C-alpha cells in the first residue's frame, strides 16, 4: 500500500491534534445519523461524525480542511482503535474519569457557565458525561497507541539546529511578545442570606411533595438543572462514585420513594428522591436550586485570604508557586505553581496580544515584571465570582525567531515531525492488518493514496 506522504502527515495532525474538538453529537447538522460511510474492522464511521468534525472547525474559526482529509483522519483514529483491540491495549477507568472531567471543564468554559451548557444541549451535566464517556475512552486508547508507537522518539540539539538552518533567513517567523503569568484564585462564598433563601424555597417544595404533589411535576417547574428538569428531575441509573459525594451519600441513605433533607453540593442545593437501587447502581431524581453567583456571593473572605498570602510572599515566608499549589482553587493552574498555560502549545509563555483574555491583558498593562498584584475580581471558567492575585513572572519582547530564545518551540516542531515519521511507518505496516472499506459516496477521495475500490 503506497501512501502519499504529505497528505498523510496532514491527516496525522488532524487525528492526533484536533480529533478532540468533537463535541457531544448534538445532531444539529440535519445529516442522517445512520449512514455508514466507512468501516475499519468492527469500527464504523457515520456521515454525521464527518459533518460534526467539519462543523467544529468552522465553529472554532479554524482553517477548515477538506472533507476527504477529515475522513482520512477519522479512519486513522479507527485504525488505532482496531489495532489496540488486536493488541489488547486498554486504559484505566481513572484516567478516563480524569480526562472526562477535563473535557467537561473545557465545555463549561466555552459556554460561559454550567447553566449555559445545559441550556444549549437540553441535558444535565451527568447526562452529557454519560454520552461523552465512550468518546473520551476511545481517545485515551488512541493516545495510548500513539505513545506506544512514537513515545520513545527523541531528538538532539543538533537536529534542532539543522532544522533551524534549513529555514531561509527571510522566512523566519516573527514571534510576538510573550509573558509568563501566575495566578492564585479564591472563589467567593455564597452568602448565608442566599443559602437560607434557597433552603427555605426547597423546604416549601418538599412540603408540597409530602402533601401529595407529584415530585416530577415540581421538578419541571422549579429545578434549575435544566437537563433533568424536563424529565421530572430524573437522573437515570448512576454507578457509585459517579455523583458528587454529598448527593450520593444522601441518596443511598434513603429507602425507595423517600425524599431527602436539603443537600448542599458544589452545584447548589438539592432535594433528592430515591426511586430504586439495582446492585451497585441507584436511580434517583432531584430538584436543584443554584446560588446567584453574580449577586448572591461575598468576596470578603476570598480577598482577606489572598491579602494574607500576598504579605507572606512579599516577605519571603512563602513562594508564589508554593502558595498556588496549596491554596489556589483553580485546579488547571495550581499544580503548575499557578502559571497560566497557552492552551494551543501547553507552554507557560503566552502571547501578549489580542488573543489574551482582556481582563488579564489590562491587568498586566499596569504591572511590572516581578510584581504581584493586589486581589483582583475574577470570573472562573464555570461562571463563579472569585478573586485572584497575579504574578508577572517574565516578559520576552517580540522578535524574529532564533535558536537562543525559541529553542523550546523549535524542538517541539522537530520532535513532532520525527514522531509523525514514526507513526507514518507504523501505518504503512498496520494498514494491511485491518479491513478498510469506504462508501462510494467518497469515490473522489484518495484514502491513503488509494481509491475506495482499492481499499475494499
Automatic annotation (TrEMBL):
Pfam families: Rotamase. Keywords: Isomerase, Rotamase, Signal. The keyword Signal applies. It comes from the Bacteria. One of its GO terms (molecular function) is peptidyl-prolyl cis-trans isomerase activity. InterPro entries: OMP_Chaperone_SurA (IPR050280), PPIase_dom_sf (IPR046357), PPIase_PpiC (IPR000297), PPIase_PpiC_CS (IPR023058), Trigger_fact/SurA_dom_sf (IPR027304). Residues 1-25 form the signal peptide. PROSITE patterns: PPIC_PPIASE_1, PPIC_PPIASE_2. The keyword Chaperone does not apply. Residues 176-276, 279-376 form the PpiC domain. PANTHER family: CHAPERONE SURA. This is Peptidylprolyl isomerase.
Amino acid at each position: 500500500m503506497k501512501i502519499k506522504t504529505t497528505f498523510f502527515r496532514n491527516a496525522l495532525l488532524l487525528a492526533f491534534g484536533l480529533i478532540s474538538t468533537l463535541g457531544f453529537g448534538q445532531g444539529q447538522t440535519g445529516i442522517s445519523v445512520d449512514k455508514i460511510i466507512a468501516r475499519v474492522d468492527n469500527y464504523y464511521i457515520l456521515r454525521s461524525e464527518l459533518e460534526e468534525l467539519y462543523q467544529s472547525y468552522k465553529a472554532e474559526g479554524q482553517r477548515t480542511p477538506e472533507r476527504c482529509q477529515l475522513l482520512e483522519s477519522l479512519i486513522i483514529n479507527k485504525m488505532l482503535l482496531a489495532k489496540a483491540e488486536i493488541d489488547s491495549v486498554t486504559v484505566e477507568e481513572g484516567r478516563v474519569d480524569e480526562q472526562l472531567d477535563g473535557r467537561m471543564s473545557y465545555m463549561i468554559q466555552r459556554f460561559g457557565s454550567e447553566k449555559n451548557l445545559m441550556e444549549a444541549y437540553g441535558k444535565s451535566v451527568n447526562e452529557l458525561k454519560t454520552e461523552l464517556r465512550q468518546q473520551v475512552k476511545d481517545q485515551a486508547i488512541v493516545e495510548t497507541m500513539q505513545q506506544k508507537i512514537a513515545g520513545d522518539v527523541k531528538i538532539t540539539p543538533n537536529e534542532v539546529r539543522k532544522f533551524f538552518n534549513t529555514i531561509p533567513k527571510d522566512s523566519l517567523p516573527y514571534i510576538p511578545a510573550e509573558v509568563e503569568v501566575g495566578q492564585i484564585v479564591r472563589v467567593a462564598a455564597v452568602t448565608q442570606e442566599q443559602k437560607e433563601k434557597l433552603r427555605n424555597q426547597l423546604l416549601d417544595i418538599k412540603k408540597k411533595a409530602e402533601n401529595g404533589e407529584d415530585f416530577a411535576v415540581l421538578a419541571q417547574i422549579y429545578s434549575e438543572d435544566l437537563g433533568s428538569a424536563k424529565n421530572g428531575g430524573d437522573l437515570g441509573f448512576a454507578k457509585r462514585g459517579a455523583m458528587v459525594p454529598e448527593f450520593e451519600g444522601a441518596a443511598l441513605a434513603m429507602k425507595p420513594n423517600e425524599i431527602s433533607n436539603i443537600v448542599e453540593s458544589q452545584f447548589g442545593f438539592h432535594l433528592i428522591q430515591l426511586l430504586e437501587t439495582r446492585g451497585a447502581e441507584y436511580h434517583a431524581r432531584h430538584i436543584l436550586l443554584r446560588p446567584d453567583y453574580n449577586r448572591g456571593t461575598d468576596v470578603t473572605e476570598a480577598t482577606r485570604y489572598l491579602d494574607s498570602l500576598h504579605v507572606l510572599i512579599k516577605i519571603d515566608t512563602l513562594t508564589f508557586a508554593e502558595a498556588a499549589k496549596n491554596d489556589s482553587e483553580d485546579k488547571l493552574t495550581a499544580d503548575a505553581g499557578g502559571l497560566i498555560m497557552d492552551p494551543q502549545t501547553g507552554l507557560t509563555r503566552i502571547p501578549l496580544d489580542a488573543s489574551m483574555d482582556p481582563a488579564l491583558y489590562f491587568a498586566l498593562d499596569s504591572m511590572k515584571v516581578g510584581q504581584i498584584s493586589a486581589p483582583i475580581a475574577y470570573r472562573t471558567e464555570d461562571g463563579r465570582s472569585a478573586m485572584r492575585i497575579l504574578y508577572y513572572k517574565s516578559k520576552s519582547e517580540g522578535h524574529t525567531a532564533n535558536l537562543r530564545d525559541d529553542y523550546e518551540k523549535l524542538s517541539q516542531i522537530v520532535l513532532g515531525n520525527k514522531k509523525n515519521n514514526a507513526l507514518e511507518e507504523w501505518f504503512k505496516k498496520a494498514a494491511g492488518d485491518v479491513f478498510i472499506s469506504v462508501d462510494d459516496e467518497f469515490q473522489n477521495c484518495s484514502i491513503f493514496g488509494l481509491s475506495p475500490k482499492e481499499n475494499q
